[in-house]
Every structure is written in C-alpha cells, then in structure tokens.
Amino acid sequence: MQKKDKDLIPVQRLLIPKSIVNIAKLLNRISPFLASRFVARIFLTPFGYKMPSREKVMYEKSKKEKVYIKKINREVIVYSYGNSHKKILLAHGWSGSGTQLSKIADQLLEHGYSTISFDAPAHGRAPGKRTIMPHFIETIHQLEKTHGPFECAIGHSLGGMSLLRATKHNLQIKKLIIIGTANSITAIAKNFAQNLQLDQKAGELLKSYFDTKFGEDLDNYSGAVSAKGIKIPTLIIHDKNDVDVHYSAAYEIIDNLENGKLLITENLGHRKILGNPEVISKITSFILE
Question: Which residue, 66, 100, 120, 256, has fewest beta-carbon neighbours within 10 Å?
Fold first, then answer.
C-alpha cells in the first residue's frame, strides 16, 4: 500500500487486527449490543506501530525515564529533549507515542525551547494494555509539577482534547496549540464503530456503556466543553482531509474559546500534518509572537 493511500485510511483501520474487525462485524449482525460490549475493551486498547525513522533522533537524544503517576496508579515514559529552561509540553494522540511530534520538537529546539513528552499508559514503551483519556489528563497534571513549568503545550488528537481539559482545570501555560483534535466523545464512539464496520446503534450503545461505567456523561470531556473558560491564546490546526477527525470539530471548539486562532489546511490528513514545514512554521511563529 502506498503511503498516500494510508493517509486516506483512519488509523484504527490500519492498526486494529482484521481478525478483531471480523468478530465485531459478526457480532453486530447478531446484536449491536453484543458488538458494543465486545469492542468496549478494544476501544480502550491502543495498538502500537514501528517507530518511524523520523522519530529516532528525538528518541535517541532524549533523556528517558519511567515515571509513576500516583493518582491513576500507572507508569509512563517521559522524554526530556533539549536543555533549555524554556519548556514546552507535547501530548501525543491515541496509539501514538512521546516522539510522535518529533519534527515539531526539532524546530522548537532551534528556537531555544526544550520539550517534555511522554508515552501515555499502554502507549509506546509504557507498560499496560488499556487506558483512557483521564489517564492522559492526570499525567499532564503530574508532569507540570515534576517537570514544569511549561511555557506552552502542544497536543495532537486525543492529546489535544486532554490538554484542553487540563488547561480548563488549571494547567498553567501561556499558550496552547491543538492539532487534529476531536470535539465530541459521542462522535469518537460512533467513528470507532464505523471504522470497525459496525452500525451506528453499536456506537451509541458503546458511548452509553462508558457513561455508566465511569459514572458521568463523557461528553463532559469534549473539546468544546473544555474550551469554555479558557482565556489563553489557543491555536487550532486541522486539515480538511482528516479522515480520523472531521475538521468541523475545529469550528465547534473555537466557537467556545475566548482567544482562539484557526488554521485550516488541505491534503495533509490526520498524521502527515505533524511533519509539514509550513504548519510547523505557523506553530513556532504562534509561540514566538
């Protein structure tokens, strides 16, 4: 498969084994309820991938340490890249890793910033099999105490949603940048079901199951909800051809920001956008201005 073709396929379809997809489809034909229960564990399971060559320099040159996140009783791997006292926090997306934003980190180094990033629980080289968004959020809050303070934070996809929520709840940063970030947890659940070729009823049942399991409406974690009350300058970057998260989410989020700025790109998708020179230039300019 050509790389261009891969950019047109949602990451869940690329990473989730076909055997799991086939079982889910079979269960969906019998009962969307059964299918929703089967895929609930899969929904919480990130699937790894071989580290791309573009990330290896950051990986090799970073100081790496295992950090225990007390509030969630999980361990993460933290990457300290560069030695500047001006630090920027990077948060990867679902099934990503602490080096996923390596091209951005490289440019930040050239502008006098160091970066702190992490493999979230069950991601990259961090132990565990399953995780959920609150684990990202608690990791962010603890790293602010142990590795901060941070001048700015940059998050991709779920990392962006987590940073929005953390910022709403007192993450002390001067600027925020989110890339390819979803708005609605309901939409995420329905997209997940669609990517496993299940009907929308299974997606609705999946969302309802997690609401019950965690004792609250998980749409409280949605990007637009978190955006309300955030006053710091926030740059939202999203591509029109993002097949993982529809770019309408960017407009939904910015409508609730007090000081938001929007950058809409084309033909970069959900992942290639992280290495695009023009996008990275916009990011560094936003931080420096």
Answer: 66
Distance from C-alpha of 74 to C-alpha of 94, rounded to nearest angstrom? 17
CATH for the stretch 53-184+217-288? 3.40.50.1820
Confirm if 229 and 255 have CB atoms less than 8 A apart.
no
Integer Cα distance of 264 and 64 in angstroms: 34
Quickly tell me which residue has 């097949």 as its tokens: 243
pTM above 0.85, yes or no: yes
Digit-by-digit pLDDT tens for the chain (289 residues) are: 445 556 666 666 667 788 888 888 888 888 888 888 888 888 899 988 889 999 999 999 999 999 999 999 999 999 999 999 999 999 999 999 999 999 999 999 999 999 999 999 999 999 999 999 999 999 999 999 999 999 999 999 999 999 999 999 999 999 999 999 999 888 888 888 888 888 888 889 999 999 998 888 888 899 999 999 899 999 999 999 999 999 999 999 999 999 999 999 999 999 999 999 999 999 999 999 8
Copy the structure tokens of residue 244. 């993982």
Q: Are 163 and 153 in contact (CB under 8 A)?
A: yes
Single-letter amino acid, residue 39? V
Strand 260-265 versus strand 87-91 pairing type? unpaired
Give just the sign of the alpha carbon dihedral 14, 20, 26, 29. negative
Residue given tokens 């001048």 in the structure block: 151
Give the β-pairing of 152-156 and 63-69. Answer: unpaired
Which of 127, 69, 77, 68 is CA-nearest to residue 97?
Answer: 77
Alpha helices in the chain (DSSP H): 3-6, 11-15, 18-30, 32-43, 56-61, 102-110, 133-147, 158-168, 185-195, 200-214, 223-227, 248-254, 277-288
The domain segmentation of the chain, as residue ranges, is 53-184+217-288
**Beta pairing, strands 87-91 & 152-156:** parallel
